[in-house]
Structure prediction request, 524 residues.
Amino acid sequence: MTFSLLAITLDWALVLEKFLLILVVVSISLGFAMYSTYAERKVAGFLQDRLGPNRFGWFGLLQPVADAIKLFAKEDIIPNKANKVLFVLGPGLAMLAALMTSAVIPWGDTLTIGDRAVSLQIADINIGMLYVFAVVALGVYGVMIGGWSSNNKFSLLAAIRGASQNISYELAMGLSIIALVFVTGSLSLKDIVVSQQTIGWNFFLQPLGFLLFMICAFAECNRTPFDLPEAENELNFGYHQEYSSMKLGFYLFAEYINMFISSVIMSTLYFGGYDILPFVDETKWGLDPNVLTLLGFGALMIKTVFFVFFFMWVRWTIPRFRYDQLMNLGWKKLIPLALINMLITAAVVLYLQNGWPK
Amino acid sequence: MNTFQITFWFLSALAVFSSLMVITRKNPVYSVLFLIITFFAISGHYILMNAQFLAIVNIIVYAGAIMVLFLFVLMLMNLNKESEQQKNKYLLWSSGIAGGMLMIVLIAALDTPDPAIITKPGTGEIGLIKNLGTKLFTDYVVPFEISSILFLSAMVGAVVIGKKGD
Prediction:
């Protein structure tokens, strides 16, 4: 269906479909992040043998709403000596980079509505994995710009720590992804999921790669034990020290969205994405394809919830690294391990494809 | 106007505007941020030409790594307007002439071939990652390996310079 408006020709049905899909995906990410803040405190309470929030709503379920109201109602302070434009831009960039990755994630197979097949993926680009990597690389700008524009030396120190940490762990992350791409033979996230539906989840083929990827994801999300940019005993409050009100809320929220998105990416890359069970052909269950798609989306969400829980579990169990330990781990342990993993994977893949060299 | 043309004009305007901002801003941090926007606009052009791999690598390498290091240095040096050095007049002239000559070369290069080839959008398949990889590792394998040795030597050089103090 194409018709022109102001001499602009667009496929309006497609635009509407994608727009709705973006709206749904962003709302799910935001809602999930909102309840992650609640879950974090409940998990912390559980691990430390206390109750956690339980005042507002049933079991404290309205606590995130109360927090949001509190943050909105607070006075929004911009320091006198801050660079005002960049000070406002920083939280926005952090949020943007956190949400951008969701565009290439396959949230499910196709839904058939009427006679229109709607793919539950906003953009299936054949360089999906590289896109994720590029957005991860951009995530550092929110921290750096926010930290520098605050005109506070603690914020600046935290921002520089955060940036160097992100750059260091991106390398090991990239190398572990290269080994994964050797196995699947495609950079498209959709193809990676489809290949896992037949040959089994990548975790069984790349356990070391998964471990490396997960450690790097922790570091990229600035989560404990890698939360040096917000090490409160050394840097007061970290790069968002001068922020207040909803700008601070954006930074804290971006962290939870990052956590959610990296959990989805981990499930997609190594645990079959929307594949329900490994080594099982779900199409033989005789279910309606739409029901199967929704079940697949549910399976992806269950895996994601587990990983988010794992993030929190680690946070309340393991203390923070010292800065030199962090750099040692990143450069001297993870990168050589990732290189070895890559070489072994490449050798095995070549051997399986071509046989032993004559 | 179709979608392609709208995108093309928008990206072109963005690229020209932000690159002008790069050289006119007093604050170097703004310059770096506008340079990042320029890289994004150029990556958009690559995507219009169906060179997805080039587009995304442009963002990863330039916007994601090199510009972060630029910002790093600028933020640590804390450049203020008072501490800005007086620029050498000859340097200004020489850079102006060099930039102008580059522009003449680029215009001359664009002038000679058939303009229909340059302006044919989204038709080439060479920019897709599969074709590019095959080309690089068959037809251009020697230049590719030589350039990787170049990178290795740069890395070794950086480590040597970094170790000098010890």
In short: The mean pLDDT of chain A is 84. Residues 79-354 of chain A form one domain. Chain A has one domain: 79-354. The longest helix of chain A spans residues 12-47.
